[in-house]
Amino acid sequence: MSSVSSVAASRTKDALAQEKRSGTPQPDLTRSNQEELASLAEYVEVHARIAEILADLDAGATDVAQAQDAVQAMIPKPMVLVPLPPASKEAVEHAADVARRIVERAAHAHVGQAHLKRATVEQIATSAG
User: Fold this and answer.
1) Average pLDDT, whole number, for the chain?
2) Using CA atoms, how far apart are residues 120 and 50, in angstroms rounded to an integer?
3) Is the separation of the CB atoms in 124 and 118 below 8 Å?
4) How many Å apart are CA 70 and CA 68, to the nearest integer?
C-alpha cells in the first residue's frame, strides 16, 4: 500500500506544480463550502423545528392554530430598505412602491401555497433534494 500512497502523493504534487506553472488561479473552495454548509445547517434546523411542531401537534401538546403560528413565525418577513437623506424623492417613492407591491403579492403567495396538493409538495421536495 505504501507504493500506492506515494504514487498518489506524487500525482498530487505534479498536478499542483503544473497548475502553478500555468498561472491558473485556484477557486476559493473553502468559502463556497462554508456557504453551502451554512445553508445546509439552516435547512436542517428548519426541518428539525417543523418536526418538533408536528410532534407537539401529534402528541396533543399544541393545537392546529398554535402550530400554524409557529410555522408562520419561521417564515422571514419581507423588508424594504428606504434610503436615508440626502436620498432623492424619487428613490424614497420607489422604495415605498416596492413595499406596497410586496404586501400585495404576499397575500397571493400565501393563498397559492395554502392550496397545494400533497402529491405536488412531495414531487417538489423530491426533485429539490
Assistant:
1) 75
2) 19
3) no
4) 5
